[in-house]
């Protein structure tokens, strides 16, 4: 299989976790139409109300990188940026060997 | 959506990462037939040859817990156990809010 996976956290400023999650849920609907996107999940950590986790699987890193060009994505990023507590960290990069569900 | 996700690492003793991955890939085929399983991915960290990551999404924690009862799973666990470097740590638990691909 050998796909490109990213698993990372975005942290919002106090009180903005839910708003950030809602923007990312909207983004997931756009981004998932991009070439090579197999998975784009938005999750929360039950113990951390202001953080949102994004778990992505793509055919390649290149496909992931191109997803920023999907119409509407940049607008959502610019809505999300002022909610963030600091710069987003680079997520964990994994190579998917196989499994089930994508 | 609100599903139960687990993201965790199993580390093999030196030289056994590939064998562990192959057992987990076999397990993913069995486990993914269980009730409530949406995702069961086996990945590796390009920087850590002896570790294997498992990323799961289930309808509920209960469905996840029941997956150990799928025929054949216990046998695969007993094949994997001697390959592990120490006890498996509990993975990261997340609540999937939504997204795309499952």
Describe the structure.
Chains A, B: Pfam families: ABM. 2 copies of one chain form a homodimer. Chain A is α+β, with helices and mostly antiparallel strands. Chain A has one domain (3-96): Alpha-Beta Plaits (2-Layer Sandwich), CATH 3.30.70.100. In chain A, 28% of the residues lie in helices and 37% in strands. The first copy, chain A, is built from 3 helices and 4 strands. Chain A is globular and about 40 Å long. The first copy, chain A, starts with a strand and ends with a strand. The model of chain A has no long low-confidence stretch (mean pLDDT 95). Chain A binds chain B through residues 5, 7, 21, 25, 28-29, 31-32, 37-46, 53, 55, 57, 92-102, and chain B through 5, 7, 21, 25, 28-29, 31-32, 37-46, 53, 55, 57, 92-102. Strand 4 of chain A pairs antiparallel with strand 2 (37-45) of chain B.
Looking at this protein, list some descriptive labels.
monooxygenase activity (chains A, B); oxidoreductase (chains A, B); Alpha-Beta Plaits; 102 residues; globular; ABM_dom (chains A, B); Antibiotic biosynthesis monooxygenase (chains A, B); 37% strand; 4 strands; 3 helices; four-stranded antiparallel β-sheet; alpha+beta
Describe the structure concisely for a colleague:
Chain A has 102 residues and is an alpha+beta fold. Chain A has 3 helices and 4 strands; from the N terminus they run βαββααβ.
Write the layout of secondary structure elements.
The structure is a homodimer of 102-residue chains.
Chain A (H helix, E strand, L loop, with lengths): L2 E9 L5 H15 L5 E9 L2 E11 L2 H6 L6 H8 L11 E9 L2
Antiparallel strand pairs in A: 1-3, 1-4, 2-3
């Amino acid at each position: 299989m050998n796909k490109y996976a990213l698993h990372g956290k975005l942290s919002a400023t106090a009180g903005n976790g839910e708003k950030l999650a809602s923007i990312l849920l909207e983004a997931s609907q756009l981004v998932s139409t991009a070439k090579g996107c197999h998975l784009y999940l938005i999750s929360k950590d039950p113990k951390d109300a202001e953080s949102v986790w994004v778990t992505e699987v793509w055919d390649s890193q290149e496909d992931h990188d191109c997803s920023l060009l999907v119409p509407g994505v940049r607008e959502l990023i610019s809505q999300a940026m002022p909610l963030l507590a600091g710069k987003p960290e680079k997520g964990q990069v994994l190579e998917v060997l196989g499994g089930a569900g994508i």
